[in-house]
């Protein structure tokens, strides 16, 4: 207790000694508490407790003259294409669009645990078994349409990190068939 | 009738414990505080589960939000000063020493270089008001005068090498609702200058997303 006992009990009484007056020395702390809470409120409101996170993204070199581009052939069993559409919609397929892999027909789904992640996780596990080489895992091709939002892109990149997809790329070219698919999705 | 006398109670409560707690919390908040920088272009970043933090220095942040506005921020006062000098040389605009010192204190700005003098002359509070700064011109179709973002990126990289002898890192801080092509435009701008690796600023998302 913030209380000071000013009377020294047990001291000798009497004998012309000047007795100090008994005082109630309880300090009123109300103002101090008020001030403390005011400052707490101030600091709580002005601080940013969480520093922003940074998602690292590496893009391939941009080639200015396309004739230098050598076509790299990739096993179609390994590729999964994800098209990001308007209003958080996703269309995905596994393999080639014309001849999809079993169970990999173009399908519309949503972001998150119950949507696209299930499909990615399934293929992260199954593709190395199909190719028979554990270095040849899934390749995800992310194709954001012009109507998709930045949030969709970050979400899907996050999904890549969550599912630990070995290889993924952001591609902005659409084949005519994919374009038709994207337009249907954005409708 | 005999009145029931209420026993007089002491009206003062003992505040010591409350005071202790209050000051304990106060101390905690003061020690963990990092002042929130006022942002001229507040954006709501998308969330992700990544755990890596944004570096504190050698960093330039390109903020994009509110339609198509682009703001630019460089960490480090000396780098900012040097960037302004180089930009001034490029656009033949002379900045006084006072203006350079003032610019060194501006965390983030978004104005065409022609209007930068007015922005520097403003008070900090006015500068950060919504709509005061129109954003940096970044029209990628016309490669020359309309694209000042390109020059800011170029000069700040130069300035960072001059001052810190290190490569400048880039981060893109986009609003979650921003359309993808707008963000892609910025990425293309960086890639044109052979900056192929950069960070995307995100908020933190819960573990069980």
UniProtKB/TrEMBL annotation, chain A:
GO cellular component terms, alphabetically, are:
plasma membrane
Ordered alphabetically, the record's keywords are: Cell membrane, Membrane, Protein transport, Transmembrane, Transmembrane helix, Transport
What's its membrane topology?
Single-pass membrane protein; Single-pass type II membrane protein
The residue stretches assigned to a coiled coil in this entry are none
Q: Which PANTHER family match?
A: BIOPOLYMER TRANSPORT PROTEIN EXBD-RELATED, EXBD MEMBRANE COMPONENT OF PMF-DRIVEN MACROMOLECULE IMPORT SYSTEM
**What are the Basic residues biased-composition ranges?**
14-24
Annotated region (Disordered) at: 1-24
Look up keyword Cell membrane and say if it applies: yes
- Indicate whether Nucleotide-binding appears among the record's keywords: no
> What stretches pass through the bilayer?
27-45
Biological processes, Gene Ontology terms = protein transport
Q: Which family does it belong to?
A: Belongs to the ExbD/TolR family.
* Protein name per UniProt: Biopolymer transporter ExbD
Automatic annotation (TrEMBL), chain B:
Principal location: membrane
What are the GO MF terms of this UniProt record? transmembrane transporter activity
On whether Cell division is a keyword of this UniProt record, the answer is: no
Please give the superkingdom of this protein's source: Bacteria
UniProt protein name:
Biopolymer transporter ExbD
InterPro entries hit by this protein: ExbD
Its membrane topology is listed as: Single-pass membrane protein; Single-pass type II membrane protein
Q: Which GO terms describe its biological process?
A: protein transport
A GO cellular component annotated for this chain's UniProt record is: plasma membrane
Cellular localization per UniProt: Cell membrane
Per UniProt, the keywords (alphabetical) are:
Cell membrane, Membrane, Protein transport, Transmembrane, Transmembrane helix, Transport
User: Quick check: keyword Cytoplasm in the entry?
Assistant: no
Q: Which family does it belong to?
A: Belongs to the ExbD/TolR family.
Concerning Pfam families, the annotation shows: ExbD (PF02472)
């Amino acid at each position: 207790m913030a209380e000071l006992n000013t009377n020294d009990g047990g001291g000798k009484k009497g004998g012309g000694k000047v007795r100090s007056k008994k005082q109630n020395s309880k300090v009123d702390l109300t103002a101090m508490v008020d001030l403390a809470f005011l400052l707490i409120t101030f600091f709580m409101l002005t601080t940013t407790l969480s520093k922003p996170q940074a998602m690292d993204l590496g893009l391939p070199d941009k080639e200015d003259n396309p004739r230098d581009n050598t076509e790299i052939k990739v096993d179609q069993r390994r590729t999964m294409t994800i098209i990001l559409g308007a209003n958080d919609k996703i269309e995905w397929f596994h393999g080639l669009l014309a001849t999809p892999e079993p169970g990999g027909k173009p399908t519309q789904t949503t972001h998150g645990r119950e949507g696209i992640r299930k499909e990615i996780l399934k293929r992260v596990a199954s593709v190395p078994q199909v190719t028979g080489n554990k270095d040849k895992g899934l390749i995800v091709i992310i194709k954001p349409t012009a109507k998709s939002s930045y949030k969709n892109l970050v979400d899907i990149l996050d999904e890549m990190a969550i599912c630990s997809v070995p290889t993924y790329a952001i591609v902005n070219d659409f084949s005519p068939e994919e374009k038709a698919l994207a337009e249907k999705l954005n409708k | 009738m005999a009145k029931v006398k209420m026993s007089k109670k002491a009206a003062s409560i003992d505040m010591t414990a409350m005071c202790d707690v209050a000051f304990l919390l106060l101390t905690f908040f003061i020690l963990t505080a990092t002042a929130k920088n006022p942002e001229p272009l507040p954006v709501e970043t998308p969330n992700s589960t990544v755990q890596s933090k944004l570096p504190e220095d050698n960093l330039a942040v390109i903020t994009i939000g509110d339609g198509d506005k682009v703001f630019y921020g460089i960490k480090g006062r000396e780098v900012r000063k040097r960037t302004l000098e180089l930009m001034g040389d490029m656009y033949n605009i002379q900045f006084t020493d006072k203006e350079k010192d003032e610019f060194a204190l501006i965390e983030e700005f978004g104005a065409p270089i022609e209007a930068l003098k007015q922005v520097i002359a403003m008070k900090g509070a006015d500068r950060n008001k919504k709509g005061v700064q129109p954003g940096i011109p970044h029209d990628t179709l016309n490669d020359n005068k309309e694209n000042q973002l390109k020059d800011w990126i170029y000069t700040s990289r130069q300035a960072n090498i001059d001052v810190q002898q290190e490569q400048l890192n880039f981060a893109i801080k986009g609003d979650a609702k921003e359309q993808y092509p707008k963000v892609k435009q910025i990425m293309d701008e960086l890639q044109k200058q052979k900056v192929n690796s950069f960070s995307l600023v995100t908020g933190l998302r819960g573990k069980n997303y």
